[in-house]
What we know:
- By secondary structure, the protein is of the alpha/beta class.
- It has ten helices and eleven strands.
- It has helices at residues 12-28, 52-57, 64-68, 74-90, 102-109, 123-132, 146-152, 173-188, 209-215, 249-264; strands spanning 36-39, 46-48, 98-100, 115-120, 139-143, 161-165, 193-201, 204-205, 221-227, 235-243, 271-278.
- Strands 1, 4, 5, 6, 7, 8, 9, 10 and 11 form a nine-stranded mixed sheet that branches.
- S-adenosylmethionine binds at residues 1, 3, 5, 14, 17, 41-43, 101-102, 119-122, 125, 145-147, 166-168.
Amino acid sequence: MNYRHVYHAGNFADVLKHLVLARVVRYLQRKEKPFRILDTHAGCGRYDLTGEKAQRTGEWREGIGRLMTADLPAKPAELAAPYLDVVRGMNPTGAIEAYPGSPLLARRLMRTQDRLSAIELHPEDFAELQTLFDGDHHVRTTKLDGFLALGGHVPFKERRGLVLIDPPFEDTGEVTRMLDGVARALRRFPGGTYCLWYPLKTGEPARGLVEGVRRLAPKEALRCELSVRTRAKGLDGSGLLVVNPPFVLAEELGVLLPAIVPLLAQDETAGWRVEELVTSR
Ligand code: SAM
């Protein structure tokens, strides 16, 4: 396990993922009924952007750094507000020094009736995650293989909720494990919303993932992507496949992403996509 998210926290890929996460949470909160969030690859939860590791790559400067200093038009600003307000709340002086990982963002958006299960396998990241949520009765942290959690942690007793699956894509086997895990989880919890993150390298998603999700034949699935550049190798953008998306998500992202792409663009190939991958309508 070589991957450490602290080198990448707040980068352009986190921006897309966390915007989508916040929109799904806000949608779930349209009803008073409680829900649960299962974060299968949670990371350590809070990132110090002034620390040596985050400073070494400085990736956050081209992600949240650009977004926080930009003036968004009214509608995209309203849609981005739940996410950006959490980041602002962690940086009260205005200088961007700290960034919320997905479990902390989720926690800050949750109401008293909502719950979070955060799974992490890396011993150091897990230790930080555990300390962050120590004594918080709304959050359960578990040191476990996140793909296994997709079997054991669903369905939720709340019967509603969101599963975020955000592995590091360190090896090719992860696509298969992701698809097998989601297939298993969907059989046990067909009504859940599942967000599967993936990297875009030379413009292409991880091989087999998009077709694999289509083959799972969910009722609805949305594909959204944001790319900032095209290079011969490395991460140029990222995407999320959202199985059972909120019905408003495609429209919301159709407003948000075109406003955000010009802010994050690093060359003229930057772009976005929102596509109904599977629809029953
Ligand atoms: N979701 C986090 C966020 O948005 O802030 C970032 C997660 S990072 C991309 C992936 C995380 O998965 C890393 O912290 C890594 O240690 C962890 N990890 C790697 N393999 C794992 C596994 N099999 N099960 C659970 N966690 C794993």
